[in-house]
Design goal:
Mean pLDDT: 86
Low-confidence stretches: 1-33, 48-53
Strand order of the largest sheet: 10-9-8-7-6-11-12
Largest sheet: 7 strands, antiparallel
Helix content: 40-55%
Oligomer: single chain
Shape: globular
Distance between the termini: 72 Å
């Protein structure tokens, strides 16, 4: 018996080694994932996820097609139930999340009652029970977007095409890092202009792919100087041409086929954008026009509107300690006086899109309390919300069940909404929220 167990163990270990080694070779040689210019990845947890072992494991799980199912399991209420059974910290986290939900629920529902939901977002959404998971709601939304694409609608470009996203943000006068230029012709045209950037440009600059928006695509690079470009011309040419020709693969998500269909025919391109001073990033979830929680990328924790902090770790989908007042955590306490403007700016973006569930990524500066800007948005965020996921799901679903929101016309596609016209959802509310941010700047 022991001999058979030993042989089985050795066989499984050898198979795992072969799979891991094969994944490593695939990452180095596969034409769709050339890891060039690795030292120019932007700082932060997203870039850190591309450490050698993490990337190999991620690629292996993606290759096996199980990543989306793992994510869905971690986001399901049953996972929180198991966590609470085994860990006292998880029970404290859940209890706080439930109390927080009870405090925020009337505020979210009141916001929903006054909310103009753009018709693009409500179409095909069939919510007939409160017992629905976060992943199921996201899947409905992405499938709705795909079905409408097949009918000729392209509103999804407000998120899936970073160039259109930035145009929309600029048109609505949201503060964003200055855009140097957008290139959507040929890769050679962008490279020619990149190599001719003057030395006295304002550095750093960020080169971002327009059509590859998922973090897994590893398509953003930080440029610190003209010399850095010229010293790596061959690498830049290989990187840009490879990304230019690549089709996105949202392999981490359970709805990857539908998500990929939304991005498949986007025009390839790159944007150059200025950096943000002393950048720190919060990924803010907005539900029915009200900001609910924000994930602090650099410090890997969650901020709530009641002033609490939930510490986490990049590799875990749950927090690692009981919630505490943010004022008691010295490394993040400085952000407390910036939070009201963060919430307002995130809400303004979601209101302007007439969108019921959106993650808005906000830049703030530790050194300049007035500095604030929108980085990007996500409509199908996989960002962990710890024990809040169950309650956020309820808040997203409840207005659909009760019908207590205002339907707004879908005559103008979301990515073409313009505040200079009178066909903008939540116009007064979004302008008021934005003005609050601008006045404090």
């Amino acid at each position: 018996m022991m001999g058979r167990i030993t042989v089985a163990f050795v066989a499984k270990t050898f198979a795992a080694f072969i799979l891991l080694a094969s994944t490593s070779w695939w990452m180095q040689h596969d034409g769709e994932n050339i890891p060039t210019l690795a030292d120019m990845r932007p700082e932060g947890a997203t870039a850190a996820a591309w450490s050698a072992m993490d990337a190999q494991v991620k690629a292996l799980l993606g290759f096996m097609g199980v990543t989306g199912y793992i994510e869905a399991a971690f986001m399901h209420p049953s996972f929180a139930t198991v966590q609470r059974f085994f860990y006292a910290e998880s029970r404290a986290q859940y209890d706080h999340a439930q109390r927080y939900y009870e405090e925020q629920r009337p505020l979210v529902l009141e916001s929903a009652r006054r909310f103009d939901l753009h018709g693009y977002w409500s179409k095909h959404m069939k919510v007939d029970s409160a017992d629905i998971s976060w992943t199921e709601l996201l899947t409905q939304r992405v499938r709705s977007m795909r079905a409408q694409l097949e009918d000729g609608r392209e509103d999804h470009r407000v998120e899936k095409d970073k160039c259109d996203m930035l145009r929309w943000l600029e048109r609505n006068e949201f503060p964003i890092p200055k855009v140097v230029g957008i290139w959507q012709g040929e890769a050679e045209e962008f490279l020619a202009d990149l190599f001719q950037l003057p030395s006295n440009s304002s550095w750093p600059l960020f080169a971002k792919s327009c059509h590859l928006t998922q973090g897994v695509e590893d398509s953003v690079r930080k440029i610190r100087s003209r010399d850095q470009i010229l010293e790596h011309k061959e690498d830049w040419a290989a990187f840009i041409k490879q990304k230019w020709s690549k089709k996105t693969n949202d392999a981490d998500r359970i709805f990857s086929d539908d998500s990929n269909a939304l991005s498949r025919d986007l025009t390839p391109g790159f944007v150059l954008q200025h950096g943000f001073p002393g950048v720190m990033e919060l990924k803010v979830l907005v539900i029915w026009g009200r900001a609910y929680v924000g994930y602090f990328i650099e410090k890997e924790g969650l901020v709530c509107r009641d002033g609490t902090w939930e510490q986490g770790e990049r590799a875990r989908p749950w927090s690692t300690g009981a919630p505490v007042p943010i004022s008691q955590v010295p490394e993040v306490a400085w952000i407390e006086d910036r939070l009201e403007r963060v919430w307002k700016l995130a809400e303004a973006v979601a209101l302007a899109a007439g969108n019921d569930q959106m993650r808005v990524d906000i830049f703030v500066s530790r050194h300049d309390p007035q500095a604030i800007a929108v980085n990007e948005i996500s409509l199908s965020s996989g960002q962990s919300m710890y024990m809040h996921t169950e309650f956020v799901t309820r808040l997203w679903a409840e207005p659909y069940l009760k019908g207590n929101f205002r339907q707004f016309s879908d005559d103008v596609p979301v990515h073409k909404l313009d505040p200079k016209t009178d066909k903008v959802p939540n116009y007064q509310a979004f302008q008021s929220a934005l003005q609050t941010v601008v006045d404090r700047q």
